[in-house]
Amino acid sequence: MNIQSAINKEVFIPRNERMLVSVEVQRRKRKRMSFLPTGARGDYTTFICVSVTNTRPHQLLITKVKRFGGSLSFTRRSQWTVEQLRQVNGINPNKDSPEFDLVFDNAVDQWVASSSAEKCIFIQILYHACQTYWEGKTGNLGKSGKLGKRRASHGAHQVSTGPSDSPPASSRTLKARRKSYVSPKQAEFINCQSKLTGDACTMNLVIYRCKAFLNRMKNMMVANQRSPGRGQSGRVAGSTNVVQRMNVALGERGDRLTRAEDKTVELMHKAQQFADTAHKVEVSAQTEGCPALRLN
Q1: How far is CA 272 from the centre of its chain?
Q2: Is residue 72 scored above 90 in pLDDT?
Q3: Which residues lie in Polar residues bias regions (predicted)?
Q4: pLDDT digits 0-9 by tens, 115-126
């Protein structure tokens, strides 16, 4: 069982939640207090998780989970709803980087993920989960508004037995609720690569998952290489070389896919320009009555 499955089983399933993604992080700027003893680095491991409740109406939650040194269990530390999330800062919109910030109503956390691929997976899934959540929220609000209108009209039909100038009580209550309701502000994603917040991102997600897997394998090989048993050093070194070659090949494949995508977009723009030019020529020929330039 991998770490994500263990976190989901131990922390979220008992609370009737389902984890969507988690990322292992460290603080970019550590909080230190001079009058408290500071422990050694690595006393605990921090994970930022995104989960959704199984009960309706669904809630999208962001949870900080820690695993302390010498323990195999996970502990839930802090939790926020998506309404409390104000900003997700990807730090660098031009290249993959492990740094990102999360800004909430009452907290600002500056993180460094275990790898740039892990961070890209986290932001990509978080962005689309937020989009799905807010679209569902808007749909539910529209349904409740239509239901309120039907109830108000039905009540008005029943009450209007005699002449009256005042609107029915249900209609006044509905209007008061609409005036008092303030839709929560959605989180802002800034300095994030467009391929993380775009619609056609399935291939990018697969590539990032492969990179994250290879990065975990490489870290495992390096950890084993530091304290290898007898007769294992040769196998560890050979496995490390294989992982490195696979990582290089995957990176080259990702670059080729990116170039192909850019080339496709460029050809689409050229085709659109050609179509616009042909349309202008046709309109001009029909206006001037020149049969030689008229396009049938």
Answers
A1: 32
A2: no
A3: 158-173
A4: 999 999 999 999
The structure tokens listed for 174 are 């509905």
CATH number of domain containing 64? 2.30.29.90
Write out pLDDT tens, residues 221-247.
776 766 555 455 555 555 666 667 776
Rounded Cα gap, residues 22 and 125, in angstroms: 10
All residues at 6 or more sequence positions from 248 whose CB lies less than 8 Å from its CB, including other chains: none
Q: Is 1 helix (H, G, I), strand (E, B) or coil?
A: coil
Give backbone dihedrals phi and psi of 101, rounded to 5 degrees, phi first: -120, 145
> Global pTM?
0.61
How far apart, in whole angstroms, are the C-alpha atoms of residue 151 and residue 157?
Answer: 10
Q: Is 176 exposed, middle or buried (0-12, 13-18, 19+ CB in 10 A)?
A: exposed
Angstrom distance (rounded) from CA 258 to CA 157:
62
Residue 66 lies in a domain: yes
Rounded Cα distance between 213 and 96, Å, is 16
The domain tally of the chain equals 1
User: Whole domain around residue 98: which residue ranges?
Assistant: 3-30+43-138+185-218
Name the residue type at position 102: L
Two tokens, residue 235: 């196998």
What CA–CA distance (Å, rounded) separates 174 from 182? 14
